[in-house]
Known about the structure:
Elements: E1 4-10, H1 18-25, E2 30-36, E3 45-47, E4 52-54, E5 65-68, E6 70-72, E7 84-86, H2 88-94, E8 99-103, H3 108-119, E9 123-127, H4 139-155, E10 158-161, H5 164-172, E11 180-182, H6 189-200, H7 203-210, E12 218-222, H8 231-243, E13 252-256, H9 262-271, E14 277-281, H10 288-294, E15 297-300, H11 309-316, E16 320-324, H12 330-333, E17 340-343, H13 348-359, H14 362-376, H15 381-396
Parallel strand pairs: 1-2, 1-8, 2-5, 8-9, 9-10, 10-11, 12-13, 12-15, 13-14, 15-16, 16-17
Antiparallel strand pairs: 3-4, 6-7
Helix pairs in contact: 6-10, 6-11, 8-13
Amino acid sequence: MADIRLAYLVTHPIQYQAPLLRRLAREPGLDLTVFFCSDFSLQKFHDPEFDKEIEWDVPLVEGYRHEFLRALGGRERVSFWRPFNYGLGRSLKEGRFEALWIHGYNRWFHWLAMWSAKRLGLKVLIRDEATLSSARRNIGKRLLKTGFFAGLKRLADGFLAIGSLNREYYRHYGIPEEKIFWMPYAVDNSFFQTEARKAAARREEWRRELGLAPGRPVILFLGKLEPRKRPADLMAAYIQLTSKGAVAEPPYLLFVGEGEQRQPLEEVAREMRLEGVRFMGFKNQTELPAYYDLCDVLVLPSVWEPWGLVVNEAMNAGKAVIVSDQVGCGPDLVRNGENGYTFPAGDIPALAAALQRVLESPVHCRRLGQKGREIISQWGFEEDLRGLKNALAYFTGALISPDPQE
């Protein structure tokens, strides 16, 4: 039986996607080629939200076949119009592909790619992060979006849902249930579980290096210090928690990341003499497992967060998680009282209460983390592979051991 030839289009090499693409490339019966619009992430680049020069310390393009599309005017920027790529249609024809999978649909080149694929008789699959809460619109914009999806449905055959809220989003805009396939947003579970276990062996040494007293709990925020992620809400909740002595051991609060809110947060910590608040700066991919292992609970208090892959990562380290009700992964990954808690976004007293529930009992905190690791172990690349194979089997008739749709 011939392999099914699948093309994947994405803007640039992404650190979270690289291990998934390597896994898909190893699957018998699936012949994958990845097409990138830009190569900017392979070199040191300036991230405006981190406000820092970044160079990823993990391989981004190893282990799978890939091609960088040609472009007019360079490929150093990614926006609606740029890079101004060309040549994908010829590559799809010469490669005799049967399906095109696209990450996103909001760039002009996405639509050109879909049109080219349909003209050649390929099936088109879309994967994106949008939810109804992550894209608030007035009635006029909702009507425009409905018209937008009417056109999208003519070009795209199937939609790969990253989670429950993403699936509801597609349903809301008229995508039939039979055309939506489960392909959950996942990280490299094996990597984060393995590296967290390694980090545990030197946890106390690591605490001493960071100047953290033994026995005190650690609250972790990991991400860009920007308004939508609400690190200031976490700081305020931490102040409430510690000022009333709600937990036996005063916790540390570690902010791992950079962004425009770092300076005002540092000023608050300095003015209020919050000796337990530490700012660790940006940390690269291979450095993260040690921080997940070090913490007792990860908090993501965002008011807009399509998913939140840091939650997946912390759960792989066996840690409790607290997220706002505007974090996309919440309905799928966070079970109140079982592996963490959800609170209303912007509700600082509710966040402080959730922190108190997690930290008031070390035994309860460990149980939350253990349950989280059980949950996330069923939310990984194998589930992604199953969903993709189901979609390909449905639309192309390709028999690559498809599994029943859950």
